[in-house]
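re: ur question from yesterday

yeah so i grabbed the chain u mentioned. its 83 aa long if i counted rite. heres the sequnce exactly as i have it in my notes:
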Amino acid sequence: AKPGGTPERRVVEPYLQWYQAAGVYLVARCRKADDQRTFHVARITEARVLDETFEPDPSFDPQKFVRRTFGVFQGAVHRVVLD
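ran it thru and got these structure tokens back, copy pasting raw so excuse formatting
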């Protein structure tokens, strides 16, 4: 939920998780918004893995996204597959 907001259920397709300024963030395609969103992991109150798969958007570039969002990027990007 946004600070001070009411929690909402979302189904997301995760693209990127990273640490910035002592925070952990998840970038995912949100099916409700039909767009990429950034979620502060500390605000997620519940998570479940669904028995579904998805194909990541091949145009998503993690380095460009992080530079655009926070203006700083350090370290290598690694593709991770969760099973």
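noticed a couple things. The first strand starts at residue 12 and ends at 20. also The first helix runs from residue 62 to 70.
anyway ttyl
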